[in-house]
Amino acid sequence: MEVVALASAEQIAVLAADAIEALVRSTPDAVLGLATGSTPLPVYRELILRHRNGTAPSYSRVHTFNLDEYVGLPDGHEQTYRETIHRELTDGLGIDRARVHGPDPAPERLPSAGARYESELRAAEGVDRQSRGLGANGHLAFNEQGSSLASLTRIKTLTQRTREDNARFFGSADQVPRHVLTQGVGTILRARHLLLLATGEAKADAVAAMIEGPVSASCPGSVLQMHPHATVLLDERASAKLERLSYYREVYANKPAWQGL
């Protein structure tokens, strides 16, 4: 696991955007794994700005796969994750909507939704770079504490805390769906490169547990310690409780430039 401690979310956005663009330039038909939520928004804004300025690579051959999707929202609802990622990133990059994939929460097909999404991911030959955030309790996607570290895409029940965290998008926690389809921890681990972003003081405990604690289902994010190519980008507040912070900074400062992320 490579830990990169930066000063701000803005610096994270620039470095993450650089990495994504480098991948698309070298692999025009790259498969990108995308997350929603507040943490990746500065990265998405940076990518769209570069696209509008004409300095970005073409995304016309890129496919994207969302981490998760709410169950129970009507098709086209503005808070579905498919609509959210269209609005926040893929439309702005000119990616055809047919190339933007997500779990299918249609009620009549719900029992097979997880297996069908796993088949889609395999047909695409996997995710080249999976960008994502970290929950305040260490969860990955909607894999809450206690989730199997080998889990695949499946339906999950949201905890009350998670529904309260997401209430800002809906107006109240009561309006947040109780169930989601989410990629499992095992699914996420199949990505060739994991790029995790964490910002803010509220994530500091989870970040420390993920990076320096034991690998445990009590902190699903800790499974990144087992991945052969995982990069963690942190701002100053999120990195504040790392015991080996000075070591991570020294290593990154002396990293050969040609290695990239």
Q: Quick one: CATH class?
A: Alpha Beta
The radius of gyration computed from the alpha-carbon positions, rounded to a whole number of angstroms, is 17 Å
Provide the CATH architecture. Answer: 3-Layer(aba) Sandwich
Total count of helical runs of at least 4 residues: 8
Weakly predicted, low-confidence segments: none
What distance lies between the first and last C-alpha atoms, to the nearest angstrom? Answer: 11 Å
Molecular structure report:
- The chain is an alpha/beta fold and 261 residues long.
- It has one domain: Rossmann fold, CATH 3.40.50.1360.
- Helix content is 31%, strand content 16%.
- The protein is built from eight helices and ten strands.
- It has a seven-stranded parallel beta sheet, sandwiched between helices.
- Helix 1 packs across helix 2.
- The relative contact order is 0.17.
Quick summary:
By secondary structure, the chain is α/β, with parallel strands linked by helices.
Helix and strand topology:
Blueprint: E1 2-5, H1 9-26, E2 31-34, H2 41-53, E3 63-66, E4 68-71, H3 81-90, E5 100-101, H4 113-123, E6 129-132, E7 154-157, H5 160-165, E8 179-182, H6 185-189, E9 193-198, H7 204-212, E10 230-234, H8 245-253
Parallel strand pairs: 1-10, 2-3, 2-6, 3-5, 6-9, 9-10
Antiparallel strand pairs: 4-8, 7-8
